[in-house]
Amino acid sequence: MNNFTYYNPTKIYFGKDTIKNIGRELREHGIRKVLLVCGRQSIFSTGVYDRVSASLVGWHVDFVRFSGVQSNPVLSKVQEGIQLGRKEEVDAVLAVGGGSVFDSAKVIAAGVKHEGDVWDLFTGQAKIEDALPIFGVLTLSATGSEMNGNAVITKAEENKKWGIGSRHLYPRVSIIDPEFQAYLSARDTVNGAVDIMSHVFELYFDGSKNVELMQEYSEAIIRTVMKNVKILLTNPSDYEARAQIAWAATLALNNSNGTGRRGGDWAAHDIEHSVSAFYNVAHGAGLAVVTPAWMRYVYKEDPKTFARFAEKIFGITTGPQEEKTLQAIEQLINFFREIGAPVTLKELGVKYEDLEKMAGNAVQQRPLGKLKKLQKEDVLAIYKMAYE
Amino acid sequence: MNNFTYYNPTKIYFGKDTIKNIGRELREHGIRKVLLVCGRQSIFSTGVYDRVSASLVGWHVDFVRFSGVQSNPVLSKVQEGIQLGRKEEVDAVLAVGGGSVFDSAKVIAAGVKHEGDVWDLFTGQAKIEDALPIFGVLTLSATGSEMNGNAVITKAEENKKWGIGSRHLYPRVSIIDPEFQAYLSARDTVNGAVDIMSHVFELYFDGSKNVELMQEYSEAIIRTVMKNVKILLTNPSDYEARAQIAWAATLALNNSNGTGRRGGDWAAHDIEHSVSAFYNVAHGAGLAVVTPAWMRYVYKEDPKTFARFAEKIFGITTGPQEEKTLQAIEQLINFFREIGAPVTLKELGVKYEDLEKMAGNAVQQRPLGKLKKLQKEDVLAIYKMAYE
């Protein structure tokens, strides 16, 4: 087991009728005025916005609405939010939405406190030294952003979908009411499930040694998501299934199953980011496509863990390690297909002639991954394997 | 799944050579003088004390030593610590030791800030409104006190071993270096392992519904402990086994596997507390004795979970539920016996004629448990089942 530091000070309210706590929490943190960051539609139609604003009004917290954040959130929108936050002199940022809204809110919170160009925080030219306090009400469980210090933003004009992380970006309080996720489309539900699974895969397959307890915990999360997403495809408003997936999403990336590891592999994520930097595909959809191809490309680096995966997730207990692994990857693709996720780049509308450009873009900061270091030609090979 | 609030702001340093961080952390928290709470011997002979004091001196943090805390820590000793803390005007309390030291340090931290009798915080006559900041260096993994807000103290003259919990009692920083647990005796190692398992049992068997992910996580912790304690009995300085058990101990009771549940059953703990309130037996030893008897007394309340336990922990997959359960309880007793834990009250030196008194003592605050509410006669029946 590797040495580690674990610190996660986000307070979570989880369950039915918990949104009402947001006003009180803001007030108890001394917040008088927030920038309410949100998307375009769903929180208005589902009643989430009404609940949030009622709580804010009830607790005398002023708010300025900053709406219109889209999936694969872009830098230009974040920069608008920073301007508005400064102009309105808000004390805090309140995300109301899914991962894109949370990530945007986090970068706005850091940006308001950062003198120069906020993109410098992504390139490493500047460090996040401070941020406005961040609060959130989650309406789509997938990215785990509600309980970690990470954010991913796309600089559209340069096709860069990059991430940052900082202890200043942990939300102070996040509220997760799974009831409101009953309104999600099957597509959003499925993309969320794939994203959650992928977060666990990144940790599970990072080549760590002596992390048995974490591996078992990871397997529990994966099995939970796989089981419950199927329930939701039949009955979207099954509260218990929503709750299981929602909490699994948070646990998948709040570092609780990352302790003692090598920090995760993250190649599949980076390989996907370069897809959605060029094509506006949902992160989860991209992950369903690239993850199995990545697995096929790297499994020989850690045959034992891949064979274990075959056994613990798909119950494949007989045969040689390699055969079990290949069978498991096949079953993973089948599972993705079964729940309606795309499984080829072609399905996503990616042009074959773009693969080379995407591969170059993916490795522009550094080679990818930990289990196997991937250069441009490796990423290209993975894209080709995932193409059709 | 039940609604829940999760908030655990303790920062953990885990791994080799991590004790050196304590001075810097104290300093960064603005602490200039601490009350260093510790036991009698082990931290001096193992070199832990030298490492801690070197770090404090290096970071110019003054400290006053308050040593001599014993297992089943007593109120009178805590009261001494409170006096010393006040007299020396310390800014914080630093626990260096195992669970007894942590629990004493917590109650001292609360007591320094509490005007009246500190025992009032246990009886409910007063509430914990504040506490000195608490820091810790853990040398025996078992109670989980390093990452939660709980403490258990014995008022010896009244045979009351009672617990308190408060958000003010979470350590700010806890350091866990498993290397120093290589010095633990087989007995301490085994008692620790039983304590950890018992914490998970309390959560696992509290009758919660729709907590599949938490059940799997709990099973992973139990299997991890059972496997690694056996390794340590053969090779006490196996770092990886120490590390697995140490982190399992923290996870067992930092509420991470308690989310969405009914709050745990805790009858077995209370039944044990009344044993060690009268007899100076180690908590873990007492738990090894009373837990299987408690299981036998209550399993009919939740036959499904007990059968699941039989399957997931002991691999008993055939036969009717009840048979599987009884077989699993038998195997649990065998496991305890195999690792050298006591399995009867008689072995602990308890006198049969004291059982009635102990049972009355156990329920003096309230009936025990959640899965099945236990009155005095129930507790007495369990003591009798556990007697020989």
Structural class of chain A: alpha/beta
How many beta-strand runs of chain A?
8
N to C succession of SSEs of chain A: EHEHHEHEHHEEEEHHHHHHHHH
Label the CATH architecture of the largest domain in chain A: Up-down Bundle
Largest interface, and how many residues on either side? Answer: A-B, 38 and 38 residues
What percentage of residues of chain A falls in helices of 4 or more residues?
A: 40-55%
Overall mean pLDDT of chain A: 97
Overall 3D geometry of chain A? globular
Arrangement of strands in the largest sheet of chain A:
1-8-5-4-2-3
**Which stretches of chain A of 5+ consecutive residues score pLDDT under 50?**
none
The CATH first-level class of the largest domain in chain A comes to Mainly Alpha
Question: Can you identify the CATH superfamily of the largest domain in chain A?
Answer: Dehydroquinate synthase-like - alpha domain
Query: What is Rg of chain A?
Result: 20 Å
Number of domains of chain A: 2
Quaternary assembly: homodimer
The helix count of chain A comes to: 15
